Amino acid sequence: MTELTLLMRDESRPTERRAPLSPETAGKLIREGVAISVERSSRRVFGDEEYAAAGCALVPPGSWPDAPEDVYVVGLKELPDRPHLLRHRHIFFGHAYKDQPGSVNLLRRFTEGGGTLLDLESLVDERGRRVAAFGYWAGYVGAALAVLRHRGALVEPLTPTTRGELDKALAENAEPLRALVIGALGRCGSGAGDALVAAGAEVTRWDLAETENLDVAALLDHDVLVNAVLATGPIPPFVTTETLRRPRRLSVIADVTCDVGSPCHTLPIYDRTTTWQDPVLQRDGLDVIAIDNLPSLVPREATVDFAADLAPHLAVLDDSGVWRRAEAAFTAACASHDLHRKEDHA
């Protein structure tokens, strides 16, 4: 039997602190017979020496393109532009299946290179439920930032912190506010709700039933809106530029979903994501926070939780319905754009 080999790459995004594996989960996989190499990183929340102590082999950052073809390259956020041709099986959040900007180019890099994208967003069980996600922490941080912005206490630029420090900030700046979470029953919505409760907010929770017949007046009668909806196809927008011309209490939106540029974008009042350096956009007197790696602001908690969910599935990479479904999603996405992997033409 061929030994399963993983290479955890260094993240190219300067503000990414998380990892798909913690040292603890990497060590457990190694004890189960999985070989793991880890690219050195100066930004990752866990130090290189912690992975080495767990039994991982340390390799230089950016060395994954030269790894043997049977290695699975594991990461979180976007790949660098080079090499253009991707020949490995990559596991990361590709954001390529909802016609996001750049998605066709990414899929083409895989098809022309003969590689495969096993998108972490497509790791689902037989009922279609995600098996590993950062959603709780995305919702928690997004809601916390929205509250702090509403109270004039958001410190810019943003820097990595902990849940304890966030909760302390929310408690120190406590004042009454009304907050709405859309998509309240999912992981993101749950995290958002917990942060808002920690802030002492009066929380309204909407999900499918409430968004089918959207009460725009009720939506606007909140101080803060947290959008935590996972849209898999186009749906009517929640807030538009026309909406913002109406009388409103609403002052801050945290868009945790960040589907900007996609047909699934439910908040077409803004057209770009925001950053740690510049976290807030202003639109018609409304503040919008749309950071697409929110959980990296609490990197330790987010990594520990995500890795604990992901690691058991990595142990069975070569023989699991979860991964077969992920590969089928990749194949379907390529076919929808008439892209075919190079071996398909052999």
Automatic annotation (TrEMBL):
Residues 158-290 form the Alanine dehydrogenase/pyridine nucleotide transhydrogenase NAD(H)-binding domain. It catalyses: L-saccharopine + NAD(+) + H2O = L-lysine + 2-oxoglutarate + NADH + H(+). Pfam families: AlaDh_PNT_C, AlaDh_PNT_N. SMART domains: AlaDh_PNT_C, AlaDh_PNT_N. Residues 7-141 form the Alanine dehydrogenase/pyridine nucleotide transhydrogenase N-terminal domain. It is an enzyme of class 1 (oxidoreductase). One of its GO terms (biological process) is lysine biosynthetic process via aminoadipic acid. One of its GO terms (molecular function) is saccharopine dehydrogenase (NAD+, L-lysine-forming) activity. It comes from the Bacteria. The keyword Nuclease does not apply. The active site is at K77, H95. The keyword Nucleotide-binding does not apply. NAD(+) binds at R129, G186, R187, D207, T211, V256, I291, D292, N293, L294. Its EC number is 1.5.1.7. Residues 1-23 are annotated as: Disordered. Pathway: Amino-acid biosynthesis; L-lysine biosynthesis via AAA pathway; L-lysine from L-alpha-aminoadipate (fungal route): step 3/3. Keywords: Amino-acid biosynthesis, Disulfide bond, NAD, Oxidoreductase. Residues 8-19 have a biased composition (Basic and acidic residues). GO terms for cellular component: cytoplasm. Monomer. Belongs to the AlaDH/PNT family. This is Saccharopine dehydrogenase [NAD(+), L-lysine-forming].
